[in-house]
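Tutorial handout. Part one gives the primary structure; part two gives the three-dimensional structure as tokens.
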Amino acid sequence: MLNTYHYPEFPYVQSPEQQSGEVLRHPVVVIGAGPIGLTACLDCAYRGIPTVVLDDNNTVSIGSRAVCYAKRPLEVWDRLGCADNMVKKGISWQVGKVFFKEDQVYEFDLLPEKDNKMPAMINLQQYYLEEYLIERSQAFADRIELRWKHKVLNMTQHEDYVTLLVQTPDGVFKMEADWVIACDGANSDTRKMLDAKFDGQFFQDRFLIADVVMKADFPTERWFWFDPPFNRNQSALLHKQSDDVWRIDFQLGWDADPEQEKKPENVIPRIKAMLGEDVAFELEWVSVYQFACRRIDNFRHGRVLFAGDSAHQVSPFGARGANTGVQDIDNLAWKLKLVIDGRVPVSFIDSYNEERAFAADDNLMNSTRSTDFITPKSKGSRFFRDAVLELSEHYRFARPFVNSGRLSCPTPYIHSSLNTPEEDEFNSQMSPGTNCADASVVVNGCETWLLNSIGSEFTVLVFGEALGIATITADNVQANVMVVGSDLLDQSGVLTERYDGGTGAVYLIRPDQHVAARWRLFDVGKVENALKRATGQF
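Part two.
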């Protein structure tokens, strides 16, 4: 019954520049081939940027690690052409249940609305996710070079490039990059090399992760317990992954000995107390962790850009780690493309820090609140939490206060300098700074989805007549005009409803599929000004 996943090993290959001793400069170098680094190279390659990835290892992540991937990152990966395998292999779910002691007190649905291509959430072991990302990178072999067993020892920043000192099994060599994207995790060596600040709060609590292989009839839902009989005065979590692997989290308390708690003779009795003595299972992976909520002082340090855990670290409650990192790359790649192509000034890249630092702070706030609810720090907060849980079983008003980990959702860039202030009223949540909601549409007689149709360039989405205009250009940046009713059909009416379309409504959509501006009437001058603002030129 034990899961027999085979960890692939990727070959180390000496690069031609190391062989020749010639120092070459690359447009983008990504440090770290985890989920965020691989997403970075794919998004850059998708936009035509040649990218080199450096990783000091030569395989995928050991253990399932991150397992929950939300709708928005799945939409990003779908744009990059690799979400289908993830969804097919992963366990899709949208319902969560919360228990207090032995009673269910609360249930939530992450995606009550129908007509979405991607599920609310999938559970998938990180090693599978990385495999699919690596497989997809092979389709961009002319733009992506994965260099395994390449460890960055040092880097030197210059005004318009970075020099990297890299160690390989064949020795040390130098290479250069116009831009570096650091995706080397919470213990980022890159961050230390640049002496970047990484401040926040460490939480004095410990949690045990146990991945077990078992046949079980539990539904594919997220189950979270406060003070269950099998883990008194602590919490526990259960949800399913692929291959009959189940993720179980136990809160241990700060005084727990991590090394002792990881031993099978201590883990197995905990699991039996939870599942029952007669349930057959085998341990696949065990880890004990302490977590922190912190972020880097600036996502941009000269020509080095930080993303994922190297830029921000959150508690695991709410699945905000990898999901947030993917959205970092979604925000960054299109901006980097405009800068590299010389269509906008280099200073435009500062909007990456503006928007993603804001999102990181939002995630840190929600993560901290979840942690404080799950692990009360005083008798008063414990009394409040338990009262909320008891009331939630019978009274609807108490349920919004239940916080077993507010699950990952995109942070709207509501205060971004790239947004055009609204002039008109809309009965829709698609305000400037918000990621676009998907909806089924018909294009050229074929059923498809809005997000697949608008692609990854600036798009002017018009509900009604566009007066025959196919593109709008402002300061070397072009937006394609797409008309609902001719270029695409909204046969179900869902698109018009979600965007409060009505005849004549207009949306300017960014390359990362976030709304930049919207109006009730089509006006070329207003669209041009909004396009300038969305590229930092207004």
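Part three, for discussion. The CA atoms of residues 213 and 244 lie 6 Å apart. The chain has a mean pLDDT of 93.
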